[in-house]
Amino acid sequence: MARQKNGSRARTATLTDVARLAGVSVATASKALNGREHVRVETRRRVIDAAEQLSFSPNSLARGLLAGRTGTVGLLTSDLEGRFSIPILMGAEDAFGAGQVNVFLCDARDDTIRERHHVQALLNRRVDGLIVVGSRTDPRPSLGRDLPVPVVYAYAPSDDPEDLSIICDNVAAGRQAIEHLIAAGRTRIAHISGDPTYAAARDRAEGVRAALADAGLELVGDVQYGSWSEGWGRAAAGLLLDRHADIDAIFCGSDQVARGVMDAARERGRRIPEDVAVMGFDNWEVLAADARPALSSVDMNLEEVGRAAARALFEALDGSPRSGVESLSCRLVIRGSTVSLT
Amino acid sequence: MARQKNGSRARTATLTDVARLAGVSVATASKALNGREHVRVETRRRVIDAAEQLSFSPNSLARGLLAGRTGTVGLLTSDLEGRFSIPILMGAEDAFGAGQVNVFLCDARDDTIRERHHVQALLNRRVDGLIVVGSRTDPRPSLGRDLPVPVVYAYAPSDDPEDLSIICDNVAAGRQAIEHLIAAGRTRIAHISGDPTYAAARDRAEGVRAALADAGLELVGDVQYGSWSEGWGRAAAGLLLDRHADIDAIFCGSDQVARGVMDAARERGRRIPEDVAVMGFDNWEVLAADARPALSSVDMNLEEVGRAAARALFEALDGSPRSGVESLSCRLVIRGSTVSLT
DNA sequence: AATCCTTCCGAAAAGGTTTTCGGACATACA
DNA sequence: TGTATGTCCGAAAACCTTTTCGGAAGGATT
User: Fold this and answer.
1) Residues 6+ apart with CB under 8 A from B272
2) Rg (Cα) of chain B, in Å, rounded?
3) Best interface-test mutation with B: which of A33, A52, A54, A61 has the largest number of B CBs within 10 A?
4) Where are the beta strands (DSSP E) in A215-338?
5) Backbone phi, then psi, for B297, in 5-degree steps?
6) Confidence (pLDDT) at B98
């Protein structure tokens, strides 16, 4: 039982109280408040007034117990600090928030035990569904097929094709970036990526190679794998620019890498974008928008991923579950680092 | 009613089912599963086996309905994208996560209507308490005193002193930063802050002035207010360094500002930290750790703020509510931009 | 005057769990 | 044998809401 500031019991009013005050039965009170028919307008009025007077708030627990639906979903994330989970979370919260759905947030910290623990707790709370957000795009173990509620995986796909996963199309993203650079007149293009253990890095490189091949071009140097950091970008760009003086564009694995690359290029007297175009990835505003020049980047539309996951969950709840991996396309955000914006 | 993948009804087992299978009454089953006394060990064994066999999961709704406590709290944030909410959210999730408490996350988008809407929804769900996380340190309107559950405000204090608020001590933070610079032998110190409409900016400046006065020093130039951006840092540092050639330290309002400042200083041939020490604020890893040299900064211990808020909420639930504004101190993170770490 | 229809309302069940209280049974003791 | 003392278990109430079904009242129709 909740307490008020002063420590006294705060008996929140129940429907019974409202009914008594309005001089009707609980059944009538319920119907009146929920807009059901077969209630005289005047009676309804009296009930609503009574409810207001008692600041009645219907107990969702009782309602959920009866209805079998709680209007809650669990959102299981693997790393909250990661900057990918948040936009997805926002998108989902957004898609739900309009309605009467509330979100249980759980951070599993990439720990299977913790994750199972949280899933169990969420099921005990009778959530209507689950969204599982991964921290990287590599497939992750499925929660299993025998859960009593629908599950949608976002960003990181499930390794079970029977599950539904909503992800970003990283291959296409790599292709898009390269096509933009080619359209901007670049032909000597390098790719400084990130950690090669990430599927995202490998997928983008695949798109890069495909786009270059289609244009009859070749990558300058191999794909440079390292880490996702600014320091790596500086180091790799330094080596690459010194070895291949004719490079006129560098596609980077992340905006951090791109920042390092821009620094290294500037130190060597290369003008951006005139001499070298630099393209980032992630479209992380703080890094991209305020760079000199502002950094062109690839936006993964993560909020849209979150929204799509929420919508898919709704549809599964309404009886039309899908399965398989659905890719959403990324979006180029062109700023001054790849084309002169005069 | 939840559906399974195949579309058939997924009747989750209830305590009644377990009791029937174990050949006992529901009362006994309940006692057995909850470790209550007055149950023979052999009977308990039978019940537990039955529960396992049916993969029984107790319905938290029913339990909460009866107990009057749901084991849930609402976390109301004003801006999810802001990088301040997230660590606080993580801290709170952390403090709760260990136990059986789950968190409802709501993003109010700094919109009062939305916020009230969410509060009502959370109360309907009978959360045991609320944590309200602000997006900036300026006081925010209280949710009111007549809520049936305890509320703790985090980061942004409530404007009602009867409420409990957990915040960062920005005045002390400004002082700490300056004291560090002085200890590092600096005497010609400037302060490039951020948006002056933010209480955080003004509070830190106050600490700065106090610390300088204590040391018998004066700020070089006035406090430079602008925005929290890298671009502002570059511009302000450029002007300041040109006007006051003897500046040997700059304390910045954010790590972004500091990055801009470092760029401007380097362009003018000033070595960091030998000629000019640069200190940031926020300790935003991506910006600070990977800068050249790595950026010393002030960490607001936001996760600790989140944890403290969660703890305070627990204590209020246990009947010891506090009130007023409680400040947590910030923490200096010294890297290479203020002292040579050789 | 009897029947039917309409309109409004209330009693009761259902949902799943926990807790209280009393009953059944067995053992120990007088 | 009867009483006190335990030990274990079950019936039922409680939590709060929604829905179903039947009943009551009143008017309209035969």
Assistant:
1) B262, B265, B266, B278, B293, B337
2) 27
3) A61
4) 249-252, 277-279, 297-299, 324-328, 331-333
5) -155, 170
6) 75
CB atoms < 10 A from the CB of A124, how many? 17
Contact A73, A154 (CB under 8 A): no
Residue A84 Cα distances to A135, A302, A305, B91, B131, angstroms: 7, 7, 11, 18, 24
Q: What is the pLDDT of residues B156-178, one digit of tens each?
A: 999 999 999 999 999 999 999 99
- Look over chain B and give the mean of its residue pLDDT values, rounded to a whole number: 94
Environment class of B135 (CB within 10 Å of its CB; exposed 0-12, middle 13-18, buried 19+): buried
- CA atoms of A202 and A274, how far apart (whole Å): 29
Name the token pair of A20. 């008594």
3-state helix, strand, coil in chain A (%, to 5): 40, 15, 45
B87 contact A CB<8A: yes
Query: Rounded to 5 degrees, what are φ and ψ at B220?
Result: -85, 115
Using CA atoms, how far apart are residues A270 and A278, in angstroms rounded to an integer? 11
- In order along its 342 residues, chain A shows pLDDT tens digits of 333 333 334 568 999 999 999 999 999 999 999 998 889 999 999 999 999 999 999 999 999 999 999 999 999 998 888 789 999 999 998 898 877 899 999 999 889 999 999 999 999 999 999 999 999 999 999 999 999 999 999 999 999 999 999 999 999 999 999 999 999 999 999 999 999 999 999 999 999 999 999 999 999 999 999 999 999 999 999 999 999 999 999 999 999 999 999 999 999 999 999 999 999 999 999 999 999 999 999 999 999 999 999 999 999 999 899 999 999 999 999 999 999 987
What tokens appear for B169 in the block? 């001590």
pLDDT (0 to 100) of residue A4: 39
Q: For B227-263, b where at least 16 C-beta lie within 10 A, e where not — what string?
A: bbbbbbbbbbbbebbeeeeebbbbbbbbbbbbbbbbb
Contact by Cβ (8 Å): B1, B9 = yes
CB atoms B59 and A80 under 8 Å:
no
Residue to test with chain B: of A286, A287, A292, A318, most B Cβ within 10 A: A286
Query: Does residue A221 come out as left (phi exceeding 0), alpha (psi in the -120 to 50 range) or beta?
Result: left
User: Within the 305-334 window of chain B, which residues sit less than 8 Å (CB to CB) from chain A?
Assistant: 317, 319, 321
Bridge-partner residues for A74, per DSSP? Answer: A104, A130
| Angle of CA points A97, A284, B300, to nearest 5° | 80
Q: What is the DSSP string of B148-208?
A: SS-EEEESSPBS-TTSEEEEE-HHHHHHHHHHHHHHTT--SEEEE---TTSHHHHHHHHHH
Measure Cα distances from A22 to A40, A292, A306, B103 in Å. 13, 68, 45, 36
Measuring from the CA of residue A1 to each C1', which nucleotide is nearest? Answer: D15
pTM above 0.90, yes or no: yes
Using CB atoms within 10 Å of the CB of residue B319, give its burial: 0 to 12 exposed, 13 to 18 middle, 19+ buried: exposed
Given a cut of 50, whether residue B124 has pLDDT beyond it is yes
Using a 10 angstrom Cβ sphere, with 0-12 exposed, 13-18 middle and 19 or more buried, the burial of residue A182 is middle
Classify A9 as helix, strand or coil. Answer: strand
């308490």: which residue's tokens?
Answer: B129
Q: Is the separation of the CB atoms in B132 and B149 below 8 Å?
A: no
CA–CA distance, B324 with B309 (Å, rounded to integer): 13
Task: Reduce the DSSP state of residue A338 to 3 states and report it.
Answer: coil
User: Does residue B278 contact residue B338 with C-beta atoms inside 8 Å?
Assistant: yes
Residues of A in contact with B111 (CB under 8 A): none
Strand partners, A327: A167
- Give me the helix-helix angle, B26-33 and B15-22, nearest 10°: 100
A15: Cβ contacts below 8 Å, ≥ 6 apart: A26, A29, A30, A33, A56, A58
